[in-house]
Design a protein that fits this description.
The chain is α/β, with parallel strands linked by helices. The protein contains 12 helices and 7 strands. Strands 3-2-1-4-6-5-7 form a 7-stranded mixed sheet, with helices on both faces. α1 packs parallel to α2 (about 55-65), α5 packs parallel to α7 and α10 runs antiparallel to α11 (about 270-285). The radius of gyration is 23 Å and the shape is globular.
């Protein structure tokens, strides 16, 4: 890996670090990395092998000119993105990060337009909008993500789940920690917009491997829907609304959202839809049912309160 000159303070960045989360992508990651190396503004590449059972990491190393970070077990996309971003800042402190899915293959060479607005200072985060892909699912996760982002920010994305996005160092730091697992992109969009960041969608001629509609694909979408629902729930204002119950009350509220997501993970798509609906219903009502239960639970955990001592009477002469 060549030594990268650190950025000059006060100057726009001349390049980005590409971060590629990867799990069992040995068949496509080589082409993806070779294509990324053709993008002039990509100055360094970090691959995060998230517990792959195949030779993903070895293929990345064979390509050459790539930093490889390994997770001993699969920890999910958000964890891989976080590890990659941390290594990116070690390579090029303060530089923007370009998140890239490992399955883009040769089309990754066309990511330049996604990088340009961030380097030019006209956007804090860009999101690639891909052309229609053959195959695919039924759009349940996309609709849930899109409607949730619109409800929370007022902005309606074209492709809310797109993993190809470039983001400035400051915007990424402000958005940490990322939402869990497959909710990372949705949470990132909400967090950047809410912090006043400028988000721009950029049409880009990219192709990725579609998930399909078989049983394995539906199980993947159930997990994805659960993570997206949880990311939206955690950003729907309830933790702030239970401040009367203190930190403990906020934690209880988040636990309830997490239990819904876990149920969806365990029971598949129908339960995932139901979980997403329950989450949306709760927060459309401003979190009142959840707020009340959180406050009651907090009060229970505090134990019985001692009544205040009666005021002392002055001594009688």
């Amino acid at each position: 890996m060549s030594v990268v000159e650190p950025p000059v303070e006060g100057m726009l960045q001349q390049g980005v670090v590409a971060v590629v989360p990867a799990n069992d992508e040995e068949s496509r990651i080589g082409a993806t990395l070779s294509a990324l190396q053709q993008v002039p503004t990509v100055r360094a590449i970090v691959v995060v092998d998230d517990g792959s059972q195949d030779q993903t990491a070895q293929v990345a190393e064979w390509v050459g000119g790539v930093e490889v970070v390994r997770h001993g077990r699969n920890r999910g996309k958000a964890a891989a993105m976080t590890s990659g971003a941390a290594r990116a800042q070690e390579l090029m402190p303060g530089a923007p990060v370009l998140f890239v899915d490992a399955d883009l293959g040769d089309s990754a060479a066309r990511l330049g337009p996604v990088v340009s607005p961030v380097l030019a200072g006209t956007a804090d985060m860009t999101i690639a909008v891909l052309p229609p892909q053959p195959g695919g699912g039924f759009g349940i996760v996309v609709r849930t993500a899109g409607s949730g982002i619109r409800r929370l920010t007022g902005w309606e994305p074209t492709q809310p789940l797109s993993g190809q996005r470039c983001i400035t160092h400051d915007a990424l730091v402000d958005a940490m920690p990322l939402a869990r697992g497959w909710g990372a992109e949705v949470g990132l969009t909400v967090d950047v917009l809410r912090s006043g960041g400028r988000v721009l969608e950029v049409p880009c001629d990219l192709q990725h491997r579609v998930t399909g509609t078989d049983l394995q694909a539906q199980a993947h979408r159930a997990r994805q829907l659960a993570d997206v629902s949880l990311a939206l729930a955690e950003r729907s204002g309830v933790p702030e609304k239970v401040r009367e119950g203190g930190i403990e009350g906020g934690r209880i509220a988040r636990e309830q959202g997490a239990r819904l997501a876990q149920t969806a993970r365990d029971r598949g798509v129908p339960m995932a839809r139901r979980a997403a609906g329950q989450v949306n219903d709760q927060y459309r009502k401003h979190g009142r049912p959840l707020l009340d239960r959180a406050r009651q639970e907090w009060q229970r955990r505090q134990g019985p309160q001692q009544p205040p001592a009666p005021p002392q009477q002055p001594p009688q002469d």
